[in-house]
Amino acid sequence: MKDKPSLFVQPDFYGVYVLQLQPKPRSFYIGSTPDPVRRLKQHNTQTSGGAYRTKKVDKQPWDMIILCHGFPSHAHPGEDLQDETGGELYSS
């Protein structure tokens, strides 16, 4: 039996990012994207499509302070990210 070809095409770039809220530097947001520039614009409502948690005007602007890439798949790029105590930093 032949394997069916995969419909998924691996993007050239896929990364996990951490945003920091400028007015409240202890507030963070973690996400993933194949296009960090577009995604930051969405979070700061410069273009449509940002996350609900980052859309409110009093919850802006956001700075992208960390961008990790080089994952073999975009399916769960951050599932193994943990803080210094072993707690989960990212959940999809």
UniProtKB/TrEMBL annotation:
Listed Gene3D superfamilies: GIY-YIG endonuclease
Name assigned to this protein: Slx4p interacting protein
One cellular component term from this protein's GO annotations in UniProt: Slx1-Slx4 complex
UniProt-listed GO biological process terms: double-strand break repair via homologous recombination
Any single Pfam family the record assigns to this protein: GIY-YIG
PROSITE patterns: GIY_YIG (PS50164)
SUPFAM superfamilies, A to Z: GIY-YIG endonuclease
Region named Disordered: 32-54, 72-92
MF GO annotations: 5'-flap endonuclease activity; crossover junction DNA endonuclease activity
Database matches in InterPro entries: GIY-YIG_endonuc (IPR000305), GIY-YIG_endonuc_sf (IPR035901), SLX1_endonuclease (IPR050381)
Span of domain GIY-YIG: 12-92
Gene from which the chain derives: SLX1
Top-level taxon of origin: Eukaryota
